[in-house]
Write a structure and sequence with these properties.
The chain is mainly alpha-helical. It contains six helices and four strands. Helix 1 crosses helix 3 and helix 1 packs across helix 4.
Length: about 140
């Protein structure tokens, strides 16, 4: 049980990290994350998929993802925004299907990466994340 909670917490933290920048020392939410390459984004998606695929059948269901979120939150892992980000990701990821294969999960993660990589150089910077979030808020 503890291993599962830790896995869910790590997965949720990864979702929160990939969804937006962490708060910086001066309360600045824009730009305190390390740059990320497209390959790193794909590796992170692969690792997260493996964590969320509770029964290891090669498919993550919405139920599995929601259970991971519930266990994360029950373990005290929702530090405010992280759980909300993961819930939004679940809603968006499973909007058109009750389950996702690794390829579909990767494709969604890379589509988010590509949308935020504003100069399309294959590296997502903190500045690009901040700019992409500002554009999303404006829409």
């Amino acid at each position: 049980m503890t291993k599962l909670l830790v896995t869910a917490a790590i997965g949720a933290a990864m979702v929160a990290t990939s969804a937006g920048a962490q708060q910086g020392p001066a309360g600045d939410r824009g730009g305190w994350m390390k740059d990320q390459t497209r390959q790193e984004a794909q590796q992170r998606a692969d690792m997260m998929f493996q964590m969320l695929d509770a029964n290891k059948d090669g498919v993550v269901t919405k139920t599995e993802a929601e259970q991971a979120l519930a266990q994360f939150q029950a373990g005290g892992g929702d530090s405010g925004r992280g759980g909300g980000r993961m819930q939004r990701m679940i809603e968006q990821g499973f909007a058109n299907s009750p389950s996702l294969t690794l390829q579909q999960f990767e494709a969604q993660a890379l589509a988010r990466f590509d949308a935020q990589d504003l100069n399309h150089d294959g590296t997502l910077t903190a500045a690009e994340r901040q700019q992409a979030r500002a554009q999303q808020r404006g829409q």
